[in-house]
Design goal:
mainly alpha, Recoverin, domain 1, 2 domains, two-stranded antiparallel ribbon, 4 strands, about 50% helix, Ropporin-1-like protein, ROP_DD
Length: about 220
């Protein structure tokens, strides 16, 4: 027997008081992030929101990256989102990282291509994955380190993009080790020269203006 039509009045419909603000913040986040697949991204957004995890949201709208040789879908802004979501752990499970990657509407084949640069089984050190991702954004060690500094810095946007010198050295050594043309001796000599130039700086920080890395592909 079909159910009779039910008439509702305003008094019968309960709207949670927090709903308007949730939808407002969601809309702002979607506009800033500009996801390629709104439904996929929305599922990741509300899943993270329900768990109290960092949201898959960009800080601002990004302009298209003209320096990329091929369109991977990956941007500095999206890597920064992943950093916010993953950097609280030294190592991240690949399954969890792949899901976060999908929630940002990035192609899975690009995720697997990054992992092929330094194959691992079940988990990866987050800083290494971030470095590999930065290397995908450009074709040189110089550009990769620039992205690393801009993602990791606590300086305001447009500032010197300073990061701890130890962190810079760790990422630089790692990316250099993946370059068959890079010499370990040259790498250490370069880092030692940087150390001398930054030794007098407070807190051992290094920014974009402090390094000029030879343009070599990675």
């Amino acid at each position: 027997m079909p159910l009779p039509d039910t008439m509702f009045c305003a008094q019968q419909i309960h709207i949670p008081p927090e709903l308007p603000d949730i939808l407002k913040q969601f809309t702002k986040a979607a506009i800033r992030t500009q996801p390629a697949d709104v439904l996929q991204w929305s599922a990741g957004y509300f899943s993270a929101l329900s768990r109290g995890d960092p949201l898959p949201v960009k800080d601002r709208i990004e302009m298209p990256v003209a320096t990329q040789k091929t369109d991977t879908g990956l941007t500095q802004g999206l890597l920064k989102v992943l950093h916010k979501q993953c950097s609280h752990k030294q190592y991240v499970e690949l399954a969890d990282l792949e899901q976060k990657w999908k929630n940002l509407c990035l192609p899975v084949e690009k995720f697997r291509a990054i992992l092929q640069l330094d194959p691992c089984e079940h988990k990866i050190e987050w800083m290494k994955f971030l470095a590999l991702g930065c290397s995908m954004l450009g074709g040189s060690l110089n550009s990769a380190m620039k992205h690393v500094c801009e993602i990791l810095t606590k300086d305001e946007e447009g500032g010197p993009a300073r990061i701890p010198f130890e962190t810079f050295c760790y990422v630089y050594r790692y990316l250099s080790s993946l370059d068959s043309d890079a010499s370990a001796v040259e790498t250490e000599a370069y880092l030692n020269s940087l150390k001398e130039n930054t030794a007098s700086r407070k807190n051992g920080m290094i920014g974009l203006v402090d390094f000029l890395i030879p343009q070599r592909k990675i």
